[in-house]
């Protein structure tokens, strides 16, 4: 998949945020914004909605409770032993089993949804990635056709980009 | 930490991954030998039987249970620091979090070995798992031992995944600076992380949810461990306060272990600017808090054992204080609830010597607390005819204990050299981002 | 950045004299009606009902007040910034504490009806369960804890009133962190924390657990003081909501504060629920008659089982589910409603602990007299809070960490 565009490398966060605002105003397509640190300024500037990972986690947690109670109840019903004078299917201890499975499955769904949503694991790094992005530089990959290149380059350099060069996807 | 730039943070922490000196290899070799000694003792025990470990009537739980509870306790403080303090937005936690979480993962792994070591017929350990079988037999989900299996495996899984998720951005940083085979390996481990906005967005939420899920898990795991004792009716064990008492004790011993580990680590890796005295001071203050909870628990249990009017309960309380294990009992009380009071003084909180000394005393005291709790009750139950004693760890148990500490240290040494022991991405979040204006 | 005088002016409660008077009349009316109901009750046909209601209310409201003051102490101990605007509101219910001490002495008059071990003494426990020792230790304990909490409130308020009286803006802006008020608070707050745990445990053991003198549970004291902290946080939520809405303190009490307070309340909701379950589980599993009798009466008997389920749902299940939602935690009206539900639930929990030990009838003794006596207690607490907030600044204006909180432009660690 050929996504042609320009990538701008920024040293300062406020420059980047300014650039993002201008780019969005011009309704240009941003593929990714790279940063070495989670930055709520960037997320706000991009207008990203909060992650839906929490809903998947809730689903996982509820499934976990069901699994816990289900497993314990099913296994107890096979022989219906009365142990220490307690009923064959006692609710009280099974709360513990249900709770542990709730956490376990909640965590699995949390992890899986985070990976799926972030498109991890990734086989190779995208060509636009620069190793400095994990150290101390920010980057924005803007998708644009040949004709828009001038405009995007202008926007990025005016905003304060250290470097701007062409990149694919 | 203030005044560092992003690049400087990276340089400082990545320098800990540089090829190590001779001391490191020496320590690593020492730990490896310790592990081998432990394995051989275990082999001897499997061949000879649990009598080699001094397990006999009436005390059928010995140092293996003590070590099990001890290591799970150590693990809890790691999760406290990385998860619970994250939820409380306590900023002093950040430089500690990665090492603390690693400590958790390794401690739970070591802890999980002990129920296995304690089995006479180790080869049929899988019977405890719920798998379909021809006779339709299943584990008894009412038993606290089965709760343990589920809780400890959940804790190990969740801690590992939490630790790993936090590591991914840092592994990407290491990948980007590495060459050759190291680059490939870290590349695979970092899952192709690029630090894009989408990745950070989901990562942030996932990390928060991990912390929110790990917190009740910590409480429940050590409550489950405490219920191994409290659910039975043995005097001295059957007490409703056990669950919070054990959880507080776990955090207490774990924080002390954090101090014991990180004070040397800071010195060896020259991380004085990152692992500041302020952080140690905060850990010390938290230790005062947990120490007070321990003191409260000792007092309450003693009072209620009298108030209950139950002759056996009162007998175990007085025997613990005056009987065969009395010296260890008082050592436990003094080391766990009196020694930490030293941290009320600012001098003690901000000097390395008292920090190290008191933390070591607490580690010893908490080990002996599990000793007293686990051994004294079966030794002195309802029927005087059945009273007996546990005659201290045998050489097999010493060997296996040495093996467990060596295993933990070995894993921790490997961790310190292969993985950034301070979280770079979280530290970068703490400092103001580079702004032109 | 902000005007000092605006801050000071806003923080001195400025409700209109009329509404203030209305409230005073309303609360005083409640007190009179409650007291009258109580007095007629104890001289009437069923004095036990009046005494048990009194006891339930006493332990509930006293625990609540100590719990809110504990929140203020925790802010000092942890150097927390986020909760600073709520500090004075947390100290306000402390004004009830001296009154509660007087109300404790009233319990002495009803001791025969409340403590059955007076006419059926238990020899093994007589060294602990005897009237002189019980009232001496509990009275002394409550006196000490009240004194320490009043000292905390004193230093906290005095710092503000002195600063306002001095009136020099420069001094206020440069408030040193280690002045004498700060030193006093830093000494008193941990002391209060320790005494809170010990003395409230003592109160729980003596005033609630000893009502069934053959029963015991080592976690009972801790369950009481954690439950009181939970109750206190819910009460603080109501006060914070009122301050936000009625006193127009939106500039200083941000919805984010309510969110953080709600998260803390969720934490203690879970902790209270966990402590309940821990006690229940250990006793259920051990199945020892001396322990199970207490629990079976409350959770399995025909009279009390539905009530016990109601307590579980109202105190624990409903708040847990509601507090999981992020958006609702920032809405003052919703949070206040939930807090009222929590308070009702925890009151019912105290009722469930106390009354089945004393009342042997078939039907739950809950009628108009219980409601009126409870209203009397509520009126007392509300009046004390109102009078306190009339006199003293509602925001901790001279607290240096409050200043820091106000001047912090950005949120750190935003999620």
Please tell me about this protein's structure.
The complex is a heterotrimer of chains A (169), B (437) and C (415). By secondary structure, chain A is α+β, with helices and mostly antiparallel strands. Chain A folds into 2 domains: 4-49 and 122-168, Alpha-Beta Plaits, CATH 3.30.70; 53-118, no CATH class. Chain A has 5 helices and 4 strands. Chain A has a 4-stranded antiparallel β-sheet, covered by helices on one side. The radius of gyration of chain A is 25 Å and the shape is rod-shaped. With 437 residues, chain B is mostly helical. Chain B has one domain (6-125, 217-430). The longest helix of chain B has 34 residues, at 144-177. The mean pLDDT of chain B is 92. Chain C is built from 16 helices and no strands. In chain C, helix 3 runs antiparallel to helix 9, helix 10 (220-245) packs antiparallel against helix 11 and helix 13 packs antiparallel against helix 14 (332-358). Chain C has one domain (4-401). Chain C is globular. Classes of the chains: A alpha+beta (169), B mainly alpha (437), C mainly alpha (415). Chains in contact: A-B, A-C, B-C.
Keywords:
heterotrimer; B: 437 residues; C: 415 residues; mainly alpha; 74% helix; globular; disordered C terminus
């Amino acid at each position: 998949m050929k996504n042609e565009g320009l990538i701008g490398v920024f040293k300062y966060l406020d420059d980047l945020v300014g650039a993002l605002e201008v780019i969005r105003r011009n309704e240009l397509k941003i593929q990714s914004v790279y940063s070495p640190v989670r930055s709520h300024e960037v997320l706000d500037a991009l207008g990203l909605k909060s992650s839906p990972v929490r809903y998947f986690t809730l689903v996982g947690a509820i499934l976990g409770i069901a699994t816990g109670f289900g497993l314990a109840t099913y296994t107890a019903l096979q022989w219906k032993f009365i142990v220490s004078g307690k009923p064959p299917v006692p609710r009280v201890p099974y709360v513990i089993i249900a709770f542990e499975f709730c956490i376990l499955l909640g965590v699995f769904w949390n992890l899986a949804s985070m990976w799926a949503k972030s498109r991890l694991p990734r086989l190779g790094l995208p060509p636009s990635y620069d190793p400095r992005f994990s150290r101390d530089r920010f980057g924005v990959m803007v998708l644009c056709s040949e004709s828009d290149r001038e405009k995007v380059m202008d926007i990025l350099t005016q905003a304060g980009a250290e470097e701007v060069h062409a990149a694919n996807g | 930490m203030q005044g560092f730039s992003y690049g400087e943070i990276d340089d400082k922490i990545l320098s800990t991954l540089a090829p190590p000196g001779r001391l490191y290899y020496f320590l690593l070799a020492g730990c490896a030998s310790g592990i081998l000694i432990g394995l051989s003792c275990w082999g001897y025990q499997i061949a000879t039987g649990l009598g080699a470990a001094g397990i006999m009537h009436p005390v059928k739980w010995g140092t293996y249970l003590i070590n099990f509870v001890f290591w799970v306790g150590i693990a809890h403080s790691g999760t406290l620091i990385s998860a619970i303090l994250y939820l409380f937005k306590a900023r002093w936690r950040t430089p500690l979090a990665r090492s603390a979480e690693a400590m958790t993962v390794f401690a739970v792994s070591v802890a999980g070995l002990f129920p296995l070591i304690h089995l006479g017929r180790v080869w049929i350990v899988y019977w405890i798992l719920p798998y379909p079988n021809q006779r339709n037999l299943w584990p008894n989900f009412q038993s606290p031992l089965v709760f343990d299996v589920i809780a400890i495996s959940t804790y190990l899984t969740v801690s590992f995944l939490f630790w790993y998720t936090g590591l991914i951005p840092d592994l990407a940083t290491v990948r980007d600076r590495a060459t050759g085979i190291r680059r490939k390996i870290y590349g695979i481990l970092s899952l192709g992380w690029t630090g894009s906005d989408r990745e950070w967005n989901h990562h942030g939420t996932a990390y928060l949810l991990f912390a929110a899920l790990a917190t009740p898990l910590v409480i429940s795991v050590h409550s489950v461990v405490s219920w191994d004792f409290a659910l039975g009716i043995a005097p001295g064990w059957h007490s409703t306060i056990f669950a919070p008492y054990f959880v507080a004790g776990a955090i207490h011993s774990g924080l002390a272990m954090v101090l014991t580990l990180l004070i040397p680590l800071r010195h060896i890796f020259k991380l004085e600017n990152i692992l500041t005295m302020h952080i140690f001071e905060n850990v010390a203050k938290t230790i005062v808090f947990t120490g007070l909870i321990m003191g409260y628990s000792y007092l309450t249990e003693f009072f209620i054992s009298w108030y209950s009017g139950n002759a056996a309960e009162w007998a175990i309380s007085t025997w613990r204080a005056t009987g065969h294990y009395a010296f260890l009992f008082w050592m436990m009380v003094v080391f766990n609830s009196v020694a930490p009071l030293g941290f009320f003084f600012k001098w003690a909180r901000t000097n390395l010597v008292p920090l190290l000394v008191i933390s070591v005393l607490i580690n010893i005291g908490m080990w002996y607390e599990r000793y007293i709790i686990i051994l004294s009750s079966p030794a002195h139950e309802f029927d005087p005819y059945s009273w007996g004693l546990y005659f201290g760890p045998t050489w097999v148990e010493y060997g296996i204990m040495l093996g467990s500490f060596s295993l933990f240290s070995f894993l921790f040494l490997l961790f310190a050299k292969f993985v950034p022991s301070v979280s770079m991405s979280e530290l970068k979040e703490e400092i103001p981002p580079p702004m032109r204006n | 950045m902000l005007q000092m005088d605006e801050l000071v002016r806003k923080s001195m409660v400025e409700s209109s004299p009329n509404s203030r008077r209305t409230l005073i009349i309303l609360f005083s009316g409640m007190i009179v009606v409650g007291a009258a109901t109580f007095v007629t009750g104890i001289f009437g046909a069923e004095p036990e009902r009046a005494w048990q209601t009194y006891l339930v209310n006493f332990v509930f409201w006293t625990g609540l007040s100590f719990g809110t003051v504990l929140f203020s102490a925790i802010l000092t101990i942890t150097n927390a910034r986020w909760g600073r605007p709520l500090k004075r509101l947390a100290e306000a219910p402390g004004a009830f504490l001296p009154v509660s001490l007087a109300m404790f002495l009233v319990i002495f008059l009803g001791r025969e009806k409340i403590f059955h071990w007076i006419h059926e003494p238990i020899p093994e426990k007589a060294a602990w369960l005897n009237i002189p020792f019980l009232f001496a230790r509990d009275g002394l304990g409550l006196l000490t804890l009240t004194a320490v909490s009043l000292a905390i409130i004193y230093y906290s308020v005095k710092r503000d009133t002195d600063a306002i009286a001095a009136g020099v803006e420069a001094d206020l802006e440069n408030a040193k962190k280690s002045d004498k008020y700060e030193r006093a608070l830093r000494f008193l707050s941990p002391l209060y924390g320790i005494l809170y745990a010990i003395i409230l445990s003592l109160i729980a053991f003596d005033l609630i657990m000893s009502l069934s003198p053959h029963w015991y549970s080592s976690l009972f004291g801790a369950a009481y003081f954690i439950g009181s902290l939970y109750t206190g946080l819910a009460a603080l939520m109501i006060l914070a909501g009122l301050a936000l809405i009625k006193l127009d303190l939106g500039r200083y009490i941000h919805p984010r504060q309510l969110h953080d307070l709600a998260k803390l309340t969720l934490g203690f909701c879970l902790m209270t629920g966990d402590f309940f379950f821990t006690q229940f589980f250990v006793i259920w599993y051990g199945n020892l008659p001396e322990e199970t009798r207490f629990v079976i009466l409350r959770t399995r008997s025909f009279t009390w089982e539905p009530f016990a389920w109601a307590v579980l749902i109202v105190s624990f299940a409903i708040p847990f589910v509601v507090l999981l939602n992020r958006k609702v935690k920032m809405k003052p009206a919703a949070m206040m409603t939930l807090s009222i539900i929590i308070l009702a639930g925890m009151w019912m929990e105290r009722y469930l602990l106390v009354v089945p030990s004393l009342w042997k009838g078939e039907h739950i003794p809950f009628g108009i007299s219980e409601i009126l006596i409870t209203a009397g207690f509520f009126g007392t607490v509300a009046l004390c809070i109102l009078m306190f907030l009339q006199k003293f600044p509602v925001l901790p204006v001279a607290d240096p960490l409050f200043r820091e909180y106000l001047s912090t432009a950005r949120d750190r660690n935003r999620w």
